[in-house]
Design a protein that fits this description.
Blueprint: E1 9-10, E2 13-15, E3 18-20, E4 27-32, E5 37-43, H1 47-62, H2 65-68, H3 71-87, H4 89-100, H5 104-124, E6 132-133, E7 140-148, E8 151-155, H6 161-175, E9 178-182, H7 189-201, E10 208-210, H8 215-224, E11 230-234, H9 237-248, E12 253-257, E13 263-266, H10 272-284, E14 296-300, H11 304-315, H12 336-351, E15 355-358, E16 377-380, E17 397-403, H13 406-414, E18 418-419, E19 421-425, H14 429-438, E20 443-446, E21 461-462, E22 465-466, H15 472-476, E23 479-487
Parallel strand pairs: 1-5, 8-9, 8-11, 9-10, 11-12, 13-14, 13-19, 14-17, 16-17, 19-20
Antiparallel strand pairs: 2-3, 4-5, 6-7, 7-23, 12-22, 15-16, 18-21
């Protein structure tokens, strides 16, 4: 197990290819969620830093080496960065665990997988093709070309900082965009560490910039900046709505990956042992701090009691403790505000009439130390009209509901403002395909859960956002399509008539 040190690490931001403090010289502290102690100091940027970063990104987009670079060359840079990330995956994962408290096994797995996105989109960079159109006008040659949307502001959350940044960064750079990145104020260190590899890979100055700080000071300035062409955001529904409203003033393009209240539907013919393991993974892995958390179980009434008992039996064996310990299975909550919010949601479920059959409060086990730990919590007797059935908790809290008929299961699963993901557990092949059609969610997992790939699109319906990340569809989010008309006829047509 890697060891913490007692040193407080000082970081700088990365703007126009240079490491620099914030313009004000101010910093803020980042705490280790397991020890609840400060381990890093991060620059507290403001509007001046944002303007400097956006100007650098705009200059790199319109002139200099990046603007002149062939897509194949961009792809080579992306693949070079992939190799450097693979080399330093241990260090990046360690930094993530110090910053967000998620398990070493989880973050090391993510950091080891991240290079695949850069390899994939590095290979896709020079395969963005326009088309010659068989146009219905005589003496016209017409074709389309795809160009980068421009300067992209990437605003990332605290739960999986590098992975969710990669989902934006790899396709944006492959498309030829430049970037200004604003990581969460709770987890900025790993993004700044990644910039050391960006520098080593040889990306031209200004192509990728990072500003750190708080939403009201940095995020707002970035979203409203006239030099930003697109915003790619992962975070809460409320912040996403505010970003969309501000972005509308300057018609910025948007990709929004927001919240979820995803259902896992369990039918009587499901392999119950597999379903139990899948639900545990969906809600207690990452301490439930994931937008795709399967936080609502909708189980057939005939297997409800058996499922609950088997689930509690497995979940009660979960080992809590130091996330750097490879034996730990449930780590701390990342931030004090989120810790309190989860406790408030637990109280809300109790007062709303749900029955707590497991957990239900702060974990006080000795192995949890001074960290922000919540006991894995399960509520039964949940109905669709309860607040706990509709509110995204973003913590290790599971709500269990029942159904009797298949159509009722689909109705309950869709009865949410969100539509990010859903899980289905059944051995009936017809039902598997029916679920894919009936469920209003961007990702449907059958007999599995919480599986992602650089090859497959990720994103949701309804309040879960707009646009897609990963897969070939992702690069289209960072491109503009231009139609080109060339008239090779001998004579000009009537100028007063639409051709």
């Amino acid at each position: 197990m890697r060891q913490r040190d007692d040193q407080i690490h000082d970081f700088q931001v990365f703007i126009d290819g240079k490491w620099t403090p914030s313009a004000s010289g101010q910093t803020f502290e980042s705490q280790d969620p397991f020890t609840a102690k400060t381990w890093a100091r991060i620059p507290r940027c403001g509007a001046e830093d944002v303007d400097r970063a956006v100007t650098a990104a705009r200059t790199a987009l319109e002139s200099g080496p990046w603007a002149a670079m062939h897509p194949t060359q961009r792809g080579l840079l992306l693949r070079r960065l992939a190799d450097l990330i693979a080399r330093d995956a241990d260090h990046l994962a360690f930094t993530e665990v110090r910053d967000n408290g998620k398990l070493w096994a989880e973050m090391r797995g993510q950091c080891g997988y991240i290079p695949q996105w850069f390899h994939y989109f590095g290979g896709l960079a020079d395969k963005v093709e326009g088309a010659v159109l068989p146009i219905d006008k005589p003496d016209m040659f017409t074709y389309t070309r795809h160009e980068p949307v421009g300067v992209v502001a990437a605003i990332t959350p605290w739960n999986s900082p590098l992975l969710l940044l990669t989902w934006k960064m790899a396709p944006a750079l492959a498309a030829g965009c430049t970037m200004v990145i604003k990581p969460s104020e709770f987890t900025s260190a790993s993004t700044l560490e990644l910039m050391r590899l960006v520098e080593e890979a040889g990306f031209p100055s200004g192509v990728i910039n990072v500003v750190t700080g708080f939403g009201a000071e940095v995020g707002a300035a970035l979203v409203s900046h006239p030099g930003v062409d697109k915003i790619a955001f992962t975070g809460g529904e409320g912040s996403g709505r505010a970003i969309a409203k501000t972005a509308a003033d300057t018609f910025k393009r948007l990709t929004l990956e927001l919240g979820g209240k995803s259902a896992q539907v369990i039918f009587p013919d499901a392999k119950l042992e597999s379903a139990v393991r899948g639900v545990v993974s969906g809600i207690f892995a990452a301490s439930g701090q994931t937008c795709i958390a399967g936080s609502r179980v909708i189980v057939h009434e005939s297997v409800h009691d058996q499922f609950v008992e088997e689930f509690k039996k497995l979940a009660s064996t979960a080992r809590m403790g130091d996330p750097l310990d490879t034996a730990t299975q449930v780590g701390p909550v990342t931030t004090p505000p989120q810790f309190q919010r989860i406790l408030d949601c637990i109280d809300m479920a109790r007062t709303g009439g749900a029955t707590c059959v497991m957990g239900g409060g702060r974990a006080t086990r000795p192995e949890c130390g001074d960290g922000w730990f919540i006991e894995p919590t399960v509520f039964t007797g949940v109905t669709g009209d309860m607040a706990i059935a509709k509110t995204e908790v973003f913590g290790p809290v599971l709500s269990i509901m029942t159904f009797s008929e298949e159509e009722e299961a689909w109705r309950l699963a869709n009865d949410t403002p969100y539509g990010l993901a859903a899980g289905v557990w059944t051995q009936d092949q017809k039902r598997m395909f029916t679920a894919a059609k009936k469920l209003r969610a961007g990702m449907i997992w059958t007999n599995c859960y919480r599986t992602v790939s650089y090859m497959s699109p990720f994103g949701g319906f309804k309040a879960s956002g707009q646009g897609r990340e990963s897969g070939q569809e992702a690069i289209r989010e960072y491109l503009e399509t231009k139609a080109v008309w060339i008239d090779y006829g001998a004579e000009q047509a009537n100028p007063f008539v639409l051709r």
